[in-house]
Amino acid sequence: MIKRAVALVLLLMLGGIFATLMLGYTPDSELNLTARYYAERTAADLGAANIVTAIVVTYRGLDTLGEVTVLFLSASIVGLVLASNRRPALRVRTPVGELLTTGARFLVPLILLLGVYVFVNGHLTPGGGFQGGAIIASGVLLLLLADPLRHFSHHVIATVESLAGLFYVAIGLAGLFLAGGFLDNRLWPIGTLGELFSAGAIPLIYSLIGLKVGAEFSSMLASLSETEEL
Amino acid sequence: MDFDWMKIPYAFLTVFIVVNYGFLMTALIQKIGARVGRRYGIPIWQNYLDMIKNYGLRSSITHGAMFYLGPVFRLSGGVGLLLFVPSIYGSYMFSNLSFAGDLILALYFVFFGTLGMALGAAESGHPHAAIGITRGLSQVSMAELPFGLAVFSVALQYQTLSVTDIVAAQQGGMLTWTLFTNPLAVSAAMLSFLGSMMRPPFDVVIAPQEIPIGPPTEYHSSYLALMQTNRVIFPVAKIVIYMNLFFGGATSWPEFFLKVFLIYMWSAFVGVVFPRFRVEQSIRWFLVWAVPLGVLSIMVV
Amino acid sequence: MKPELMKRMVKGPDGVEFEVEPLRDYFCEVPPTVMPAAYIKIVEDLFNWARAESIWILGFGTGCGAIEMRPLMTPRFDAYRYGVQWRPTPRQANLFIISGYLSTKTLKRAIRAYEQMQNPKYVIGLGSCTINGGMYWDSYNTIKRLDDYLPVDLYIAGCMPRPEALLAGFMDLKKIIRAGKGEGANQYAENFAWYKENQKRVIHDWDMPDYNW
Amino acid sequence: MNALTIFAIGLGTAFLLGLLGERQKSLGYMLTLAALTFMSAVSASWLVVFAATGADSFDIFTAGTAPPFAINLRMGLIEAALTLLINLTGLFAAMHMGDALLRLGQRAMAVLIIAIMALCGIVLTRDIFNLFVFFELIVIATAGLVLLSDDDSALAAGFKYLIVSQFISALLLVGIIFAYHATGTLNIDGMAEAAAAIDPSVSGAFAIAFFLMFIAVVAELKPFPANGWALDMYEAAHPGFSAVFSAASGTAALYAVDKLLQIGGTDWLPVATGIGIVTFVGANLLALPQTNDRRLLGYSSIAQTGLILTVLGQQDIFGDDYFFIAGGLLFAHALAKAGLYWLSALVAGRTLPDWAALQSRPLLVFAFISCVAMLSGLPPFPSFYAKWELAHLLVAEGRSGLLALILFGALVEAGYLFRWFGYLIKRATPAESIACPAHQLLPIAAAVLGGWALGFVWGELSSSYFGRTNLLLTLPLFFALTFLLLDWLPAWVKNTLAIGGMVAFFSLTYAEYDPLRLIFAVIFLIGGAVTLLASYHAHGRRIGFYPAAMLMYAGMIMLIRASDSFGFFAAWELLTVGSYFLILRGKHSEPHALSYIVFSLGGAFLILAGFALAASAVPPAPTFEIAQLADLVQPVAPWVFLLLALGFMTKTAAIGVHIWLPGAHAEAETDVSPMVSGILLKAGLYGLFVLLMNMGKQSLYGVELTYVMLWIGAITALLGNLMAIFQEDAKRLLAYSSIGQMGYALFGLALMNHLGWLMALMFVINHYIYKSMLFLSVGGVAKRTGTREMFKMGGLITLMPLSFIATLIGIIAVSGVPPLSGFGGRWIFYNAILTADARLPMVLIFLSGPIAFLYLFRLIHTIFLGQLKDEHRRLKEAPFWIILPQMIYVALLMVVAVVPGMVLRHVDAYISQFFPDGALNWEGSTITSQFGYWNPVAIMIIVGVIFMLLFGWLLFVNRRAQKVKQFNFVFSAERPFRPETTHFAWNFFAPYRKAMGFLVQPFVTRFWAAVTDLLHTAADITRRLYNGNGQTYAFHFLLFVVAVFTFRMGM
Amino acid sequence: MAYIAMATGFLLVLIGFYGALTQRNLLRMIVAFTIADSGVNIVIVAIGYMRGRTAPILDATVSAAEAVQRIIDPVPQALVLTAIVIGVGITALMLAYAYRLYERKHTLDIAKLTDLQG
After folding, report:
1. B15, part of any domain
2. Which domain holds residue E99?
3. How many angstroms separate the CA atoms of B240 and B225, rounded?
């Protein structure tokens, strides 16, 4: 009880801080310096229609590399945490139901396709590598739900993941040598705004991210599912 | 070094006079003490006899080198103390060897004999000797303090450490004696004097039966004779310092004899009147009564 | 033999064990020797005179006669005027007064005290008991004849002799000393074996060296 | 090489590791090492570039776009150095954790590499959100690496860490986004510019946003008390990783705070300071009661981080020195912590005494103490220089209170670190020896060597800065340190080298000293060499003795040679440390050595503060000529005087701060006691000499400080002597006697007149001679008898006659009885006080004089006289090499006794510069003062003649004396029982205790015990906050946030 | 609008925090953290919102030239993406930890995982 009271008091004070913060907040009416730069220059410089994507993949590419690394790390560590106690599979097959199995069979290809679409078009439309990767992983999740005993080859997942990561780093380095700097997308002509093959390396990077994120999420899901005692 | 070799025979002469005077005076004091107790008392020459007898004992033992040297240290201390202080003011003959050092030398040389004696007694291996020494040292360390303070007070008063100069400053009749110019210091010193004379009430150090006379319990024969000699020289030597510092010194031997006798009598007088103190009691007594007087004398001088 | 006098093995700080034999290691085993008088007669006479006039008595009362010695220090008798005084330690004493009967137990202490006095030294037997046992002639634990154990210079008979008798005894002792006849210590050294034999005959728990330096 | 390759290689290798199969672990491990090596090489190459060319830092753009529109990195000297530190830590950690990494496979390796890369990222990036991403990477990587530990509790620790990290990241994100809103940029430099431009009237929102960012990043530093989670990590994680967590993560986070402070501006510096100092003091206090080594190291790490945070918070006043200070502290901390954590892997047990296992490996002990010295800021390590600068700049700005807190914390830290070292050296070694695989030793070696190398670098930096030679290249110190390399030689060779070196150095330099310094130089070098003669008795190699001893001597001679405050202080620290090692060598000296080092460091800190205060008034800082102390005026001067005097008096063991001395001197080895007593104490006196010589009398609030010193000296003399009386332990008795003697010397100095100083100098000489002699003599006896308890000895005079003679001469000299040299001291002393006005303290001095007899007699009686014990019957005289110096001292004492003028008249003339009045007249053989006279030659002859005459007479009349044995004495007509019951020795001065015992109640000891108890209890109560519950830690964190917010807004 | 979103976001943060502080079950704590994360993300997005503007994607309706007037601030959008991903990563990690802890200690009670303290 005391604990709750103390928590409440503390959070009230924290809330007070937040409230002050909020009261001091005035919405901008104009874009600030940075945003204005992005709004004005993205299209011309990078050729990406989706400004957010341009920011994510190029301007703040280092963040994104870090982000991908976060996922890689999480996946690795989840693997580490869960790997050391993997038991021999003594699972009894329990039927999961016709509906789910069939539905999965039907839906998974579509989901995968959607995922690929989302990350390939990341520079044009809302969405991108992370979103696409998550969609792909959801396909994997569906498969796992439909068949809990399905075994995903960790090696394959890891290979996809690592290769995608390596390529990503390689492209980044290529930017260093061929273009303006690390992770610069202008390795080749940026093409026409709005086309699929435009915005230089952005689609490629985002695809790699998509693959990588998909693989990482899948890896985590697989690892987690393997711990399940059925 | 321009040393006047005549000083050596003169020094021997001083020692000779003081030894004889000491023997007689000690006996006299003992006799006075006896008379207080309604006894007849010893013959006046008794101390000579005792000393000769002790030299005349045929056998002796030794416990080791320090034991052997103890009485030598003791008597050297007494003789040295006597010789480092001028006996008769204004007399070249009896200024003794005071050229070697001033008052500080005399004060510190007191301990020469004490230390040697303590070491000698201790080497006898007798626990009672050691007990006596601890008592003696404990008591003396506190009893000497008021004296030290008084001496210092006097040194401050006359701005010198030279005994001769101090006596010289008192040569204007009785009222220029330190006794009257600095009574506090003198009182402190005279209380201290009681403690260093090994007489009641401060003689538990040589408790005769409990620790059979303490430090000298193992000494006998010629060792004892040497110590007896010291026993008559040392008080006189000490009193000479008192006399020089506080009572105007002496310009002639008669004056010397009289003053030494009277000062000695002070201790004898107290001794026959008062009962004994335990060691820690006497330490406290000096701390409470004598030391403050000394401190006061230093503060006001 | 008392255990503390037995041989024992002791381990030094360096770990080496060795034997300690107390009687040999703690005590001087040299027997007493006859000490010659001064070579020049006049010096010896001077010394004898001084010895006679300066008698220092060991303050050790061995029996009931001890009570008779105390009055000598009082104004009434005042032995000091004769050069007599008491010393608390045998090292400084010349005269040992065996004051009355001497139990064998005390004899041991008396012997030790006597031997620790310096030559020349004198013994007075005070009271009849020291002469022949007196009223304790048949006692199981007192000695009868002091002379068998210590060289006695003078006996003062009586049971007990009064202090006046003691004073008179001192006067006689002075004469003996002045005549150069107070050689008890040398006599003791000469007949050391005989004295020891006598002493050991009555003292059964002999637990000290033969001669106590 | 572009700095970005650090990321590329890091990430590339991490991803590549995923491609390797389960069986290719070794290959993966090789790759990991290669990658980390490469990353280190990149940093190193940049470091070389910047250091060599002095080039400015430059920005690295990403995405081909200029900041603030794209993320940029910055590489400069600082960044290069920090990333090198991080990468190397990573590399060596990887090496160290090889087993664990191979067991867990490539995933773990990848995590490690990414963690290191992310740490570099924090250092390099100039984008606030990018910083966040790297922080999150580190959080996750840390949570993963915790799993390397074999310890099950690591799991819980990792989870607690994640809980708090969630709170932190939430606040950080909110802060970042609002800061972005307020400034329109995410670039740190841009944000800083924009923040400065924000209208103060509307800056409230930004301030709160900044607060959130700031507090979140600061939380990564594990500030006290919001750090329970971090401690669990430190305790539970693999030590190899803890090293990274402490050294590298802390470094990166600190640099992040530094970046943030650029945004926040000077307004936020006090907050950083506040958090830093609270953390430093608090964590150090909490470290006190720790028993688990790694947890203790954790607390220490947190404390050090707090200290550096404090420095960050004070950067406004540091100017160019900022990186010198912060870097010095940071690198010392990082290397030391890494080294210690790696060492902890070698130790099987987890409690502090278990480290005694290292005893058998001197090199590891050396590594340990190097680390401890780095942490404690001892020379010649970078932290020492940093501490010096820090103190000076803080005081110069009037921030003395902060300095006081820092020094207090540092003292506590030194306390527990040195306590630990004491355990390591002194506790029983576990039976099983420790395994030291090379791959675990290499990182430790790297850390330690790195520390020394940085010590050299900082020395170079400071040498250009202070205009003096590099401390490490100073000849005496260099000479002392070479003994580290020579420690494999047999002891006698080293001893010869040491003696030769000291004598040679003296003969080369003696012409440079003025008479005062010459006296000290003779005592330190020649005296030291004589004392070292006693060391020939030792067999074997005596590992560790010579470096320590030579360090002490080097410190002492450097002290004399130092003309500026820095050199003086450095020398002071060196001699303190050297003597500490020496003292610690004693068999039971562990607690005493500890109290010695704590008091000494406390004193040293006071000196540091004093110098800093003085420097603030005597431009130009950072160091000044000692002689410039004379230029100080009110109101600074008395405070400087007070601080310095207190510092020096700690060394001379004035009453109140004396409690370290008896144990330290008594428990030291036989030949060490004379060194630390006879010689080392003089360093304190030298300090006081220098102080008084330059500053003279000072008064504070109307109280004249020299007068206070006079009282202290008098009380010290009295109580030191009194306490000596009641000791049963011979060496303790001597030690207390030293306290008393130093009291005399202090008194003499404080008299501030000609003769007072002369007397103090006489004491310097005499005390060296007789105390060395007595300690050697008693030490030799103790060596033979196997005990120091005096009542267990007795009657040794016939068995050890030479020792007896030395003791006899010694005690006669100490007591001041003519004709030996002690009397000269007393004579000058009495003449000196005749001219002084202070009369009351004199009374105490008077009282203490005769008291000396008591304990001196006790010393010689209970050891050499009285009854010989059975087990000592076969003792031999002390070894030749212990006797030899004693005999030299006996001869010296005689010489000084007869011709004191040989030395003193030169000093007398020298002192006349300061006190023209009262000089002695040295005509002929009589020494004359204004008041009295004294003829040592005549005294010696007269006393000798009288003595010999009487001795001859006694020999004649007593020629037939029979030599008897120990039990042949009168014992009330009884036979003594046994020697043990017959030797009167124990509680020797019982009547004195009855009368005066009330004066020697251990009030001071109780006081200091109460202080330490209080600290421990406070720490123990505070500890209970850390109840191990992750949620509680979250509470702590939020409370911390709210508290800092309230504090900041209230400011 | 932005205020409402922001307030909601902050409220979610506080609710999440409250849950994390008071719930003793590890899984509930993890859920609480995801709530708090969502709150933070909402706050981030709300910051970037500008009344009357559209998403920062250039297409037929929003030309590059008029983008400055038409689109909202794209930066928070980019940031929130990163924040979300990181949140997911950490959540996954915590779940794995929770699983492992349960397996080792057989409890999900945070108050019982206190074997290190002081």
Report:
1. yes
2. 2-55+64-112
3. 23
Q: Is the pLDDT of residue E2 over 80?
A: no
Mean pLDDT of the region D464-468: 73
Instruction: Flag whether B233 is in a domain.
Output: yes
Q: Are C28 and D964 an interchain contact pair (Cβ–Cβ within 8 Å)?
A: yes
Which whole number is the average pLDDT over D54-81? 86
Closest CA to D451 of D535, D397, D383: D383
User: Is-contact C136 C102, C-beta < 8 A?
Assistant: no
Q: How far is C13 from chain D (nearest CA, A)?
A: 6
| Domains in chain A: boundaries | 62-82+95-230
D854: chain B residues, CB-CB within 8 Å: 134, 137-138, 141
If you average pLDDT over every residue of chain D, what do you get? Answer: 89
* Residues of chain A found within 8 Å of residue E81, distances taken between Cβ atoms: 52, 56, 67, 128, 130
Which residues, other chains included, contact D1007 with Cβ-Cβ below 8 Å and sequence gap of 6+?
A: none
Phi, psi of B49 (to 5 degrees): -60, -45
Angle between helices D382-396 and D362-376 (to 10 degrees): 10
The answer as to whether B58 is a domain residue is yes
Place of tokens 């003028």: D901
Task: Give ∠ CA D123-D129-D134 in degrees, rounded to 5.
Answer: 45
Instruction: Determine phi and psi for E116, rounding to 5 degrees.
Output: -115, 130
Query: What SS3 state is found at D395?
Result: helix
* Residue D295 with chain E: CB contacts under 8 Å: 116, 118
- Chains adjacent to D (≥3 CB pairs closer than 8 angstroms): A, B, C, E
Torsion of CA D262, D265, D267, D271, to 10 degrees: 0
Q: pLDDT at position D596, please?
A: 92
What CATH number corresponds to the domain at position E44?
1.10.287.3510
| Residue linked to tokens 């109460």 | D1010
H/E run at residue C125: strand C122-126
pLDDT tens digits, B83-140? 999 999 988 888 888 888 888 888 888 888 888 889 999 998 898 888 888 888 888 8
Q: What is the pLDDT of residues A170-179, one digit of tens each?
A: 888 888 888 7
Collapsing DSSP to helix, strand or coil, A124 comes out as coil
- Taking the C-alpha atoms of residue D826 and residue D248, their distance in angstroms, rounded to an integer, is 61
Q: What's the CA gap between D809 and D233, in Å, rounded? A: 63
pLDDT digits (tens, 9 = 90+) for D970-1019: 888 888 988 988 998 888 888 888 888 888 888 888 999 999 999 999 88
CB distance E110–D1031 less than 8 Å? yes
Please state the separation of Cα D541 from the chain's center in Å.
Answer: 26
Name the nearest CA neighbour of A55 among D69, E70, D4, D185: D69
Query: What's D532-600 look like in SS3?
Result: HHHHHHCCCCCCCHHHHHHHHHHHHHHHHHCCEHHHHHHHHHHHHHHHHHHHHCCCCCHHHHHHHHHHH
In a domain, E103, yes or no: yes
The full set of domains in chain C, from first to last, is 41-202 (3.40.50.12280)
Instruction: Tokens for D677, please give them.
Output: 């007593």
Matching residue, tokens 């085993």: C29
Among the listed ranges A15-29, B112-126, C36-50, D933-947, which one has the minimum average pLDDT value? A15-29
pLDDT value at A87 more than 90: no
Q: How far is CA A220 from the centre of its chain?
A: 13
- On whether residue E118 sits in a domain, the answer given is no
D vs B contact (3+ beta-carbon pairs below 8 A): yes
CB D966 within 8 A of CB B125: yes
pLDDT recorded at residue A230: 43
Q: Report helix, strand or coil for D62.
A: strand
Confidence class of residue D65 from pLDDT cuts 50, 70 and 90?
Answer: confident
Number of domains forming the structure of chain E: 1
